[in-house]
Automatic annotation (TrEMBL), chain A:
Pfam families the UniProt entry points to: SBP_bac_1 (PF01547)
The keyword Signal belongs to this UniProt entry's keyword annotation: yes
Signal peptide region: 1-29
Superkingdom of source: Bacteria
PROSITE patterns xref list: PROKAR_LIPOPROTEIN
Taxonomic lineage from the root: Bacteria, Bacillati, Actinomycetota, Actinomycetes, Propionibacteriales
UniProt keyword annotation of Signal present: yes
Gene3D superfamilies attached to this UniProt entry: Periplasmic binding protein-like II
Record key words, sorted: Signal, Sugar transport, Transport
CDD domains in the cross-refs: PBP2_TMBP_like (cd13585)
Organism listed in the record: Microlunatus flavus
Protein's UniProt name: Multiple sugar transport system substrate-binding protein
InterPro entries attached to this UniProt entry: Bact_solute-bd_prot1, SBP
From TrEMBL, chain B:
Organism placement in taxonomy: Bacteria, Bacillati, Actinomycetota, Actinomycetes, Propionibacteriales
Keyword match Phosphoprotein: no
Domain ABC transmembrane type-1: 99-311
Keywords: Cell membrane, Membrane, Sugar transport, Transmembrane, Transmembrane helix, Transport
CDD domains assigned: TM_PBP2 (cd06261)
Entry-linked Gene3D superfamilies: MetI-like (1.10.3720.10)
Chain segments carrying region Disordered: 1-32
Principal place of residence: membrane
Gene Ontology cellular component annotations, sorted alphabetically: plasma membrane
Highest taxon in the source lineage: Bacteria
Transmembrane annotation, as ranges: 40-69, 103-124, 133-156, 294-316
Family according to the record: Belongs to the binding-protein-dependent transport system permease family.
Taxonomic source organism: Microlunatus flavus
Protein name: Multiple sugar transport system permease protein
Compartment(s): Cell membrane
Length: 450, 321
């Protein structure tokens, strides 16, 4: 009996241990499931019969287009739409932890320098003939770091000036302003006429849109924010960057900008002010907004009234600055070859023409402002599918990168200093001089590697 | 009538935390049962221990260790740097400013959500028709993600087209004058109101759960003794709800010390509303300086721990009913 009891107890304890161990193993398995299939770094060269994940801050293209791609290549696309900020966090977190999260994902122009130095993305030249793309994709330069193309631009976002012609005409502004002085005088005339109390939208909320607005305005005053080595070029009161900041804050103080704009973002300003006729102009708007927002009756009350304005400069119109979106292949991709095939297809002229709606609305990609390929823009213009296409096409050809030396590795930190300090200057909690000094100190410190 | 007499008359004991309260020393029989169970209890809790160790203990130790290292993707390799991360954080104006902001968020959020939680729990203490429905509706803001609430309220606070601006305009105060970002205190109070709207439902439920344990006989006895409704709340309800109130305050402290979504969505990165958790995000994921991010996270954890201990020490009392 004693032996029997002993055997029973041993068996029971063994079962208990097995049960506990099994539960623990299950939990461990559950906790450890994000390893990315062991393909981290290197990835598979397989291109047929695979499913790739494409993570972008956009709704997916039409299903028929993706199905067609699958039919052509045998590659199935799992499209994941993640908001831009979260996507940047995911890219950083996944790369740091060396885990897989997507085969192709966003490469924003502003992070090219950082991503290039970090080596988190494959050079696109390893997979595609980027040299042959350069002539047709003027913004490819914005995606090049240390001679390597980090991502391929899939749209041609650049900053443009827009104005409400009806309001300008009513105020007696008969000639389009071509210089900053003429532009400022025109805004004052519109304000004096009284159709709108505050004619200019500047998104003074402390976010990225404020930084890009200042870069474009600095360009209009005849300079750039940083030199090729990343040193600040805006600390002298006579410099274009300083003048641009002063002009923006003065516009707020003088009532050209609605007081509420200290907490308005770029997209809010476009949607709730410009599209509703509450303001008459946005100096740094997005390319394509006339066709995709201001001329849409369900979203706008100013249909047919808004025009693009050749961005005023010191003595005449100036170049527009590029802020395009690109797509690249993270080093932890499972199927980099397949991802490259997708990017080639996604950025091809034919596909961009389809996405732009030239071949029917069923083929259009709703999150697509303007194609990154000049040839596609020309086809859109020729077919009449791009509102003021000739003008946009010219601007695109003449557009240039925000930073002559490319976006620095420390861009996000610098941009944070720009928008928080310009915002503070607009609220009156600090002077323009102090804001510029703080921004300059940050740039100097970062560019010197401290 | 004192709380002691009320508690005493019903055979209740309110004792400091950790007091001898009774029932904590296992009887010989219980000890025997425990011994007889063999390894089963340990085996059964093993998965939980593994789970907690994996998701809490290991990351916590990792954070503590890494906070003393330079871990910067743009400045490799990872190397020991002593207190450099902590010194850099202490010297940062942005961090100091965000700490001051966070302190204000905590004060406003903990006080408001606790007071509102107690008041609403008392209103819900007695059964009435539709009580379940009211509680269900009350929970809704708590169930919404912070980002969704931020977006919802950004429409309400929109200075040019928002509800607040329109109402102020209608009542003659002028539209667009209640501006987030213009004044630090006003900005933080307005943003914190949004978070209070989110966290108060949980406070209500926690206090309500504590109130449900108070026997009706106590209130009946108090009534017979001539105690007013307010007197009963002061002498019976509040003292006996202290465990629930303490938990409610701790959860409010944790939520407000870590507030991120609402200020980020409503006020961007502006210094007028930026919190220390937002700075952790900027340091870690914008600047890619994970070492400083670890150090700041550790600092927030210590703050949370100390704050929680203070609240528990000051508010919590063991109640035996």
């Amino acid at each position: 009996m004693g032996a029997g009891r002993g055997t029973g107890t041993t068996r029971r304890r063994a079962l208990q241990l097995v049960a506990g161990a099994s539960l623990s193993a299950l939990l461990l398995a559950g906790c450890g499931g994000g390893g990315g299939g062991g393909q981290a770094g290197g990835g598979s060269t397989q291109t047929s019969g695979v499913t790739i994940t494409v993570a972008l801050a956009a709704d997916p293209p039409p299903k028929a287009a993706l199905d067609d791609f699958t039919k052509q290549t045998g590659i199935t696309v799992n499209w994941v739409n993640i908001d831009w900020d979260s996507l940047q966090t995911k890219i950083s977190a996944a790369a740091t932890a060396k885990t897989y999260f997507a085969d192709a994902t966003d490469v924003d122009w502003s992070r090219v320098g950082q991503l290039g130095k970090l080596g988190w993305f494959y050079p696109m030249g390893d997979y595609l003939d980027v040299e042959s793309m350069k002539a047709d994709m003027p913004q490819l330069a914005s995606f090049t770091s240390d001679g390597k193309v980090v991502g391929i631009p899939y749209d041609a976002s650049f900053m443009v000036t827009t104005y409400n012609k009806k309001l300008f005409d009513a105020a007696g502004v008969t000639k389009e302003p071509t210089t900053m002085d003429e532009y400022t005088a025109a805004l004052q005339k519109v304000k004096a006429k009284g159709d709108v109390e505050h004619p200019l939208d500047i998104p003074f909320a402390a976010s990225e849109g404020l930084s890009t607005y200042w870069y474009e305005t600095t360009g209009a005053f005849g300079g750039s924010v940083l030199d090729e080595s990343g040193k600040p070029q805006f600390t002298d009161p006579g410099s274009p960057g300083y003048k641009a900041a002063q002009w923006m804050v003065d516009a707020m103080k003088n009532g050209l900008v609605p007081p509420g704009n200290i907490n308005v973002t770029d997209s809010q300003g476009q949607q709730t002010l410009m599209a509703k006729g509450e303001v008459a102009s946005i100096f740094s708007d997005y390319s394509g907004t006339v066709g995709t927002l201001y001329d849409l009756p369900d979203q706008s009350s100013v249909k047919g009234q808004v025009r693009y304005l050749a961005t005023p400069g010191v003595t005449g119109p100036t170049a527009n600055l590029s802020n395009p979106d690109g797509v690249g292949i993270p080093k932890e991709a499972k199927y980099p070859q397949a991802a490259a095939k997708f990017i080639e297809w996604f950025t091809s002229e034919q596909q961009q023409v389809d996405f732009a709606g030239v071949n029917g609305p069923e083929k259009a990609f709703t999150a697509f402002p303007i194609p990154s390929r000049l040839s596609a823009v020309e086809k859109m213009t020729a077919s009449g599918n791009l509102v003021y296409g000739d003008q946009l096409s010219t601007m695109l050809e003449g557009s240039k990168p925000v930073f002559p030396g490319g976006a620095p590795t420390w861009y996000p930190q610098f941009s944070n200093a720009v928008y928080t300090n310009l915002h503070a200057a607009a609220t009156g909690s600090m002077s323009v001089d102090d804001a510029i000094k703080a921004m300059g100190d940050t740039a100097t410190k970062l560019s010197s590697g401290q | 009538m004192s709380s002691v007499s009320a508690a005493g008359s019903a055979g209740l004991a309110e004792s400091p935390r950790g007091g001898s309260g009774g029932g904590t020393t296992p009887s010989p029989a219980r000890r025997g049962r425990s011994t007889g169970a063999g390894p089963l209890p340990y085996v059964l809790v093993a998965p939980v221990i593994v789970f907690i160790a994996g998701l809490a203990f290991v990351p916590a130790v990792f954070t503590i260790v890494q906070s003393f290292f330079t871990v910067n993707a743009l400045d490799p390799p990872t190397r020991f740097s002593g207190l450099r991360n902590f010194r850099a954080l202490a010297e940062s104006d942005a961090i100091r400013s965000s700490l001051a902001n966070t302190a204000l968020y905590v004060v406003v959020g903990v006080v408001l959500s606790t007071v509102l939680g107690i008041v609403m729990a008392i209103l819900l203490q007695r059964p009435f028709r539709g009580r379940s429905l009211v509680i269900a509706v009350l929970i809704l803001p708590w169930a919404l993600p912070g980002v969704v609430e931020g977006i919802l309220w950004s429409g309400i606070f929109d200075p040019n087209a928002g509800l607040v601006s329109a109402v102020m305009n209608d009542v003659g105060l002028g539209g667009g004058h209640l501006l987030l970002g213009e004044n630090r205190v006003l900005t933080i109070v307005l943003i914190e109101l949004v978070q209070v709207w989110q966290i108060t439902p949980l406070s209500v439920l926690l206090v309500l759960a504590a109130l449900q344990l108070i026997p009706d006989e106590l209130y009946e006895a108090a009534q017979i003794d001539g105690c007013s409704r307010w007197g009963a709340i002061r002498q019976i309800t509040l003292p006996l709800a202290r465990p629930g109130i303490a938990v409610c305050m701790v959860q409010a402290l944790v939520a407000t010390l870590n507030v991120f979504d609402q200020p980020y969505v409503l006020n961007g990165a502006a210094a007028t509303g930026a919190t220390v958790t937002m700075q952790t995000y900027f340091v870690s994921f914008q600047n890619l300086d994970f070492g400083q991010g670890y150090a700041l996270s550790l600092f927030i954890t210590v703050l949370t721990l100390v704050g929680s201990l203070v609240i528990v020490k000051a508010v919590y009392r063991k109640v035996e009913l």
